[in-house]
Known about the structure:
This protein is an alpha+beta fold and about 250 residues long. It contains 10 helices and 7 strands. The chain has helices spanning about 25-40, 45-50, 60-75, 100-110, 110-115, 130-160, 165-180, 185-195, 200-220, 225-240; strands spanning about 1-5, 10-15, 15-20, 45, 80-85, 85-90, 95. It has a 4-stranded mixed sheet with strand order 3-2-1-7. A 3-stranded antiparallel sheet has the order 4-6-5. It is elongated and about 80 Å long. The relative contact order is 0.09.
Amino acid sequence: MLRFKTLGQVFLERDGVRVAGAAAQPRRLALLAILAAAGSKGVSRDRLIGLLWLDTDEEKARKGLNQALYALRQEIGSEDAIAGTRDLVLAPELVHTDLAEFRSALASGDLEKAATIYEGQFLDGFHLPGAAGFERWMESERAGLARDHATALERLARRAEERQDHGAAVEWWRRLASLDPLDGKTTLRLMEALVRAGDRVGALKQARIYEVLLSQELELPPDHDVIALAERIRAAEALPVTTPVAT
């Protein structure tokens, strides 16, 4: 089975072994990523050339596209792997992608599976010099998928809160906070979850991390609600413990 990994590390693998050689060249991986993201809608040849060979004359660009398609089809082992004449579509039964699995899990409401599949940003660390159009496309796709992932984590956290599973709520809020440690609202939700889980020390630690990062990176004061909650937690910690009188 051929599998294309795009969320986090970027690579093509067959039966668990990474594919090397012509099919693993950056421009060909970029082509495969565009097709994977398009899904059943497909992508026109002109669109692919515009994203990957914009600064190349038309004849060389079309030749480059045909060579890339040939190399990928050879590696996959089927001419039907990338189907179509004008519009090209990646055959999902021949090339499994984590991107398709992520979107399918979201669509079916299996948010835990979606969160597991999302191992990192789309094409994280991947660059294609000399292809500004592709870089812009990649950033747009990356941002959209990151939003979908963050939304899934928030929904999972709120579901855990609804069933009063405080430990799970903490973990989901913590994962969401790790995506943007400077977000005051998420920090506040994580602190509240930690308090409900009985971890006031952890809540105060989270507030301090947020304050330090915000000061160091943006030179901004922390969110008022975060500070207010931290003060309430400290006040509660300072209250004397009343010992019941024995009778």
